[in-house]
Amino acid sequence: MKYIIILTILVSGLLLFTGFIVEEDKAEIAFSKELKSIESEVYTFQVNNKTVQTSDSEFQLSVEPFIKDQELYISVFDLVDLINRSIYYDDHIIVKAKNKEFSFDRDTKFIRPSDIFKMLNYSENKSGDQITFSKNDDVSFNKIEKHDLPTIKESGIKTKTQDGNNKLVVITSRGEKSTGGYSTEITQVTTLPYDDKTLLVIAKTEDPDDDKILPQVITYPQDQIIIDSKYQDYNFKLIAI
């Protein structure tokens, strides 16, 4: 019995040291090594290979990446170690990366890095067993009021040249809604590293709460920006978040 107790204490201490057990009075996980957040333009993963190629270095994962349902999965702790400086436990796993927070179920062990990299403005490219995430370049834009712009009754994205000032109007619409409380807001426009003729337009959307009393009126939520007219021949892809 004495030896069992000693062994239990040693194993518990080892797990705590390696970051798999959290002390009850500490919210932040303790890792066995210092976290080094890599700010890389490119991350290349190889299936069944622990080495991740970054722009100018290599990073060693603790667990080999694998494919499930045609999607790449890696350990949540490896992702934290790769791109992030802090991870917290409460009812969920909360990962903080570049002023953004990502929440997962507490029992999560493996995640799709594509979900995180997309939020951090990276594009994904697959080539055989190799998956690469590349940083997109932001396109500058200015918000404009609707004023004389047309109401877009179909959901999606429209563009319109603006006469006389070399600008292109980009409009995102959620289509016809039967009540108020719906919205869309363009937050980012980026180029795609693997497609030099496509712009990615990212728009934040909000829906009304189910139990909220709303005016019964037809609305057409939309948002509009202006960008340089040099993009007028580009394809536009809308991503709602």
From TrEMBL:
Which Pfam families does the annotation name?
PrcB_C
UniProt cross-references to InterPro entries, sorted A to Z: PrcB_C_dom
Q: Which residues form the PrcB C-terminal domain?
A: 169-225
Q: Any idea what this protein is called?
A: PrcB C-terminal domain-containing protein
Per the UniProt entry, what species is this protein from, by scientific name? Answer: Natranaerobius trueperi
